[in-house]
Amino acid sequence: MKTYFIPFAALLVSISACNQNTNRQEQNAGDADTFQTKSDSGIEAAADFNLDQVSVSTSELGEFPYLSAPSGYRHAGEKNKSLEEKYFFYNDSQIRKVSGQYYYTSVFQEGDVFEDTYLVNEYKKVIENLGGVEFYSGGLPASASELLDKEQPAYVSDMYDPHPYKYKQFLIRTAESNIWIELCHGLNANQVDLTVVKEEVINGKGN
Fold it and tell me: Domain boundaries in the chain?
């Protein structure tokens, strides 16, 4: 087995750099509103998605839930709640529990043709025109799936089935609220699930 020796001066430089990085992280910890990393106990330690980097929208959003069905499609089974919790995720380990005014609907075609990609892209264009940004696209992360099975949040009962979906999640920031939007698509059921959660901002941070 080889033994490696680090010069004492280099070791001091390394320790100093680590201390500086630690200090910077501690100083910034209270400033950035970040996604959370799931642990065995649920949702806790701060991770690296910083919603403060998302620009505040200057667009007129209109009335909640801000989105209507594109031409040739309709909303069905709409549910409105004054307060509900929902999970949003950034990757396989980073999950955020959001609470606020809640809207859910299924989106179906009015005619004979259902175009999943077209429908999702139409919503995406409207959301981006309102100042929204897409922060996640993909399947249900394994850690989120485990958390859903464990905690059984109420919103899951609104969905067709959370596991086989493809997800697109967006954020619109305003001075008063964070507006979280989710499109669930890619099913064989010829539908898209749309959810909007309006999280009130307190002192520049979400609830």
Answer: 32-206
